[in-house]
Amino acid sequence: MPFLSSLNIGGSGLSAQKTRMNIISQNIANASTTRAENGETYRRKLVTLQEDVLNDFGAVLEDENNRIQVSGVTVAGVMDDMTDFKAVYNPSHPDADENGYVMMPNVDTTTEMVEMIEASRSYEANVTAFNAIKLMATKALDIGK
After folding, report:
1. How confident is the model at residue 79, as a pLDDT?
2. Whole-angstrom distance between the N-terminal and C-terminal Cα of the chain?
3. Any residues with CB less than 8 A from the CB of 26 and at least 6 apart, and which?
4. Of 13, 46, 54, 88, which has the maximum CB count within 10 A?
5. pTM score, two decimals?
6. How far is CA 141 from each of CA 82, 100, 134, rounded to the nearest angstrom?
């Protein structure tokens, strides 16, 4: 049913925002990690989202049956933020260089919290849209009774 296929859009949005919140949580948890698994200072990770196209415009024009396919959003990738690390003077730290500076991750917890709130609000908006579609479908089924 084409009407219910619109639930895929909300579902893909929920999945994408969940991934985004997981990466933001990982950034916050590693805000003071000076030595990650690879032995280097932890780099902030960024999530890129893109439209999940199930069909292109030409295919829709050529084949009328493809019109019921919908698109959504998908995680295009998770990449490292290549901004500079923060140099903090702490000569007693085991990772300090010869001048006493420690290279701290490029994670700003305030920015991460703002991004977390944004992702949370997007998640809530997708839940609201999902529930509205579900309610419309239920009401449409009640008409037939």
Report:
1. 95
2. 19
3. 45
4. 13
5. 0.80
6. 52, 70, 11
pLDDT grade for 93, boundaries at 50, 70 and 90? very high
The percent of residues in the chain predicted with pLDDT above 90, rounded, is 54
* 45-80 pLDDT, tens digit each: 999 998 876 655 565 556 555 555 557 888 999 999
At residue 104, the 3 state secondary structure works out as: strand
Any residues with CB less than 8 A from the CB of 30 and at least 6 apart, and which? 36, 42, 105, 107
Residue with tokens 């959003």: 73
Tell me the C-alpha to C-alpha distance, in Å, between residue 68 and each of 4, 29, 114: 10, 42, 37
Cβ atoms of 32 and 104 within 8 Å: the answer is yes
Contact 114, 51 (CB under 8 A): no
Phi, psi of 52 (to 5 degrees): -95, 100
Residue with tokens 């579609």: 133
